[in-house]
Model the fold of this input.
Amino acid sequence: MEKIDILTIGEALVDMISTVKGVSVEEATGFHKAFGGALANVAVGCARLGARTAFIGKVGDDPFGRFLHNTMKKMGVITDGVVFSTDHYTSLVLVSLDMNSKPTFYFYGRPAADLNLRPEEIRLDLIQNSRFIHFGTVSLSAEPCRSATVKAVKAARDAGAIVSYDPNVRFHMWPGREEAIEWARKMIPQSDIIKVNDDEAEWLVGTRKPEEAAKKFLAMGPKLVLITLGEQGAFFATRKATGHVPAFPVIVVDTTGAGDAFVAGLLTGLSQSETQNMEDVQMIRRVVTRAVATAALTTEAMGAISAMPDKETLEKAIKERFRLGELP
Done:
């Protein structure tokens, strides 16, 4: 089996995005169907950027599940790890956007197929053949998917893969806020890379100040910490250095999936670098800059993957639109 660059495990679902901004879900009069689910989004984003990418997850044996599966295959994602459920439907997420395009999510029909992935359905051969593994907390919010995710992360560490973690905390999916934070924190020491936004930093380590938060995260085990700051760009920290990459100017249409695009840009950049040494500050800065650019481009259209760039588009934007030339 050819080596897999990046494997993601978690949720694939359908986003139903309000066609009108500034109204709540209950006030919306129409919705646009879009591919969604953070871990599925990252898989597609990585594949579009040229990485050999695979996805492990569960969808319903229904039209929405087949839409997700077919979309991933069309985008070049290896879908051997996708399981179809005959007992649960594919999850739908209703998304409303405020006037600044910030999304609010309402998960419909939980627990759906994605949270019913069982440990014995995990394709260990895919994990053992992957260089990077990426996961989040949605798949930890209920059994049996929680046990499946923990099993996958352990298998990845045992196999020597680099483990990437985006807590992506969604409190409404958990029985209680304390349990969500407990599990989100529990998985930090199991990770080599952690990406959070400033809200999540405050929830998990008690401060939204990037420098302070990064020190606390690094003390828990990860070698690389990324804190996304919206229109302020992103902060990164390793054991040796810290840095900040400013955001790029774009006309924002929809921020849904921007964080997932950032992760895709980050992981693909790392996987395509000559070294994955987390102490190579110049390489990390270059990769984070690509990640910020990938996220920026993704906000220019509706839906999480609609505007995710391919490698050629990203390189052209970095050189021409963002005027960086060749990244250092």
Q: What stands out?
A: The domain at 4-321 is CATH 3.40.1190.20 (UDP-N-acetylmuramoyl-L-alanine:D-glutamate ligase). The CA atoms of residues 207 and 285 lie 23 Å apart.
